[in-house]
Amino acid sequence: xxxxxxxxxxxxxxxxxxxxxxxxxxxxxxxxxxxxxxxxxxxxxxxxxxxxxxxxxxxxxxxxxxxxxxxxxxxxxxxxxxxxxxxxxxxxxxxxxxxxxxxxxxxxxxxxxxxxxxxxxxxxxxxxxxxxxxxxxxxxxxxxxxxxxxxxxxxxxxxxxxxxxxxxxxxxxxxxxxxxxxxxxxxxxxxxxxxxxxxxxxxxxxxxxxxxxxxxxxxxxxxxxxxxxxxxxxxxxxxxxxxxxxxxxxxxxxxxxxxxxxxxxxxxxxxxxxxxxxxxxxxxxxxxxxxxxxxxxxxxxxxxxxxxxxxxxxxxxxxxxxxxxxxxxxxxxxxxxxxx
Length: 340
Ligand code: NAD
Ligand code: TYD
Prior knowledge:
Blueprint: E1 2-6, H1 11-23, E2 28-33, E3 53-57, H2 63-71, E4 76-79, H3 86-91, H4 93-113, E5 119-124, H5 148-167, E6 171-176, E7 178-180, H6 189-199, E8 203-206, E9 212-217, H7 218-231, E10 237-240, E11 245-247, H8 248-259, E12 266-269, H9 284-290, H10 298-311, H11 313-320, H12 324-336
Parallel strand pairs: 1-2, 1-4, 2-3, 4-5, 5-6, 6-10, 7-9, 8-12
Antiparallel strand pairs: 9-11
Helix pairs in contact: 1-7, 4-5, 6-8
The site of nicotinamide-adenine-dinucleotide has 31 residues, from helix 1, strand 2, helix 4, strand 5 and strand 7.
């Protein structure tokens, strides 16, 4: 099999490639990643030496750099590459449209031209918007994105759908809930809290901290994507979720408890504009149709993730002493100082 995976130096993409190549070491796998602030060569440790693995530093918008891989023939494209952080999307919506919408359009166009037999668009439950205290998003829920990030992902989903209907490109869209696990960039809630707590620094909670997210371990998400690559029905959407709803406050308290750190580290800070209150995902379709089940409970997964960050201090120290500083100055400190 010859597979193109985009965004494979990021959090989920690198976890996907590591697991996939361990199970299918004979794969010819082309990892296309621009290495933005979120892309990290250290995330690729452990899989660069597979004989069929190729890394290409390129923008998914860059047709010229990518076309030769399509010319050589591909059995599938899995598009993980994206700008992925909601707070950054509020500051830089154009960048999100450029990568998430136009970049996906470029890949869809190439896949159509070179008749790629499977295109998986990795989307998110955030395209459905926000929920009240009850109910879950299904694959039939209307798209009602609230952040520029979610809107850009919804735009990509609609283009992917249009390529299936108009041109017959065999596209499958996946919509997963909030992921956690190893190699996640420390701008996202769980690694940010973990690292701050390990350093004894304040842990910021937006608003009242009672927003609800539905958590899934990245390894369970990646196995679902692999099953969809093998058996997913073109032209359809699969929600991927593990039914682990927690308030942000509950998540933060659990992390502090595991680390033996005091709750006095928690700081309630200014809320995120347009902050979605609750996500909850119904994932019955992938369970029924493909037989996928999550294998990692939230409690076990969180404990393992905490242990991973404790054991991989060198990994995150390198990040927080580099590019992360600009995030810290631009997004983190103003919140903590109450300027936002
Ligand atoms: P991430 O930010 O950790 O990684 C994104 C990767 O894409 C990085 O390696 C980055 O260098 C690369 N990239 C960014 N712009 C690019 C471009 N123009 N061309 C090529 N590469 C580029 O993100 P993640 O958390 O791993 O998310 C991966 C995918 O999963 C995204 O599409 C995201 O929308 C989706 N998703 C994420 C979550 C989550 O909880 N993290 C949940 C559901 C869906
Ligand atoms: P995040 O990890 O950014 O994911 P998303 O916004 O895509 O769900 O945030 C998860 C939740 O945690 C979200 O409700 C925002 C909140 N949050 C905080 O309260 N403090 C923080 O420092 C961060 C990064 C997020």
